[in-house]
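Feature request disguised as a bug report, sorry. It would help if multi-protein outputs had a clear separator. Right now it looks like this:
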Amino acid sequence: MNPKNTKRTWLRNGILLGVLSLLLIFVACNMNQSPTDGQTVQSATHVLDKVKASGKLKAGYIVYPPFVIKDPNSGHLSGYFIELMDAIAKEGAFSIDYEETNWGNMVTGLQTGKFDVVVSGIFATIPRAKEVTFTTPVLYVGISAIARKNDNRFTTVTDLAKKGLTIAVTNGEVGHEYAKKELLDAKLTVINTEDISRPMLEVVAGRADVALGDSMTAYRFAKQHPEVRNVFANNPFFVFGTSLMVRQNDPEWANFLNTSIEHMELSGVTDKLEAKYKEGSSAWISKRKPW
């Protein structure tokens, strides 16, 4: 063999081996990296495996009475969905580390692994379902409206579409999404707040004709403010399944939670929570057992 050809062959093979080694090192480093802000947790990360190994679960929550209640002095958490998750954790022999979030950051926090479930009772919507996964509904909450008690302009949902109305909504909340799509002739007062009842104060102050919000918040607000009425108390005009929110591409974790929710329903736990936290028949719609 020509020595020059042999030398070229060794050189070529050496370069190829070097490039291959660098590629292997790059892949290995990326496999070992932990997700940072803005990165989505890969589907290979299974929450149930982590919970079984560590005995702990990371849960995000948003203060949303009576689903999630936070004592302002002690920080102690209670509420329907907190007690539901605590009951699941007790049966599953793991503990929960709760971390507060908000409506705007809950999806990002879930996707980046800051927490593995959001437990505030989240409405399952199509836009949200493009980014996250929802468990089976625990109960159903609708959209209602708050108007002044002596204002009789509003009896059906079509009345909300009248021209010239000022409608107050919470930025990013389902009432806001509905108004943007269906109430195109309204002047929207969009308020950035974690308190869904805040836009309803615009009606009390006379700065808005009507405010949109979920049926549970509307019920509680009308009970506390006799000068307003809950327009759709007995017939919310849009109903959402309300459930837990988890990352996509982790069916084992979603299946575990679905099985746990069904167990809590059939064993009577959700009945006890409803008796404790449901303040009136129009606050939400309950699921019914087979018999």
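(second protein starts here, but nothing in the output says so)
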Amino acid sequence: MSTACAFGLALHCAFPLPGTWSRCSADDLPAVRITLDGDVMPDTAGATPEWQTVFPDGNEVVVQRGADDSYEFRYGREARYSLSPARDAITAAPRDPDSARWRRFLLDTVLWWTSSAHGYHILHASAVEGPRGVVIFASRTGGGKTTLALEFLRRGWRLFSDDIVAIERSGDRPTVHPGSPLMNAPASESDLQQLGTPIADLDGETWLSVDRTGTGSKPLAAVFLYSRAGDRSLDVETTQPSVLDLVPHVWDINFDPDRLKSRFGLLGDVIEHVPVYHLSAHSTTAPARIADLVVDLLPEGSSQT
């Protein structure tokens, strides 16, 4: 059984995971066991729908919370998954064990949901780790954050997390946890093999195992609220953002009062102790120009590596 860390969890997996995973002090993190079972058929009597959507690949995703506080995930006809009531075991039942799709869904959607169920907060963002610490780019889906992250990887930075970032309150400066060493990169990028090992081409994207990945949980160095469109120009707003500017980038599955209080406390810590910038760019602006601007803005001495 292999051990790896992602999204603040110590993963004990009964089958090999693609990619080179971050080393971690597994004893310091919640342990989650991942196994395969061809008959994941949770008792859905009394289950409550929590989330339903259709992924870009056409697969309908349905998440239900069982009466026993377990979770069931259905990923079209590709696979089913269950998360135990204690949040310490994930069981996967793929239709085709050799398919890359069910593994990708497991190692992003199911894992970040499990991380949130363990109390971490989840931001829709990409994150890279460089000489001045971990920087995140929060944006809508298709907003260009992955393309920008790739530019930093070309400059020798590390992939900290692709698309989803797990974060928690820890002293004044919030702590971020590395995701998996995997990312969904545009298949049109010509140099992906220089950054890692392609695993599969899925729906116009390359599922990539990245060579240089995060070096462990770190204090957050900076946040860029990033927007890219045809009516924008390369610019950074100097107005101090508020908590409400961060709220649209938070994904949550739990809305009880204590959870909401914790979330706003975390976002308040980010605003108070972490540099936060509004970054915009035209849809045709070269990623290298945007990255140059980002590096110039990063405060000296912010590195916690």
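Even a blank line would do. Unrelated, but nice: The radius of gyration is 19 Å.
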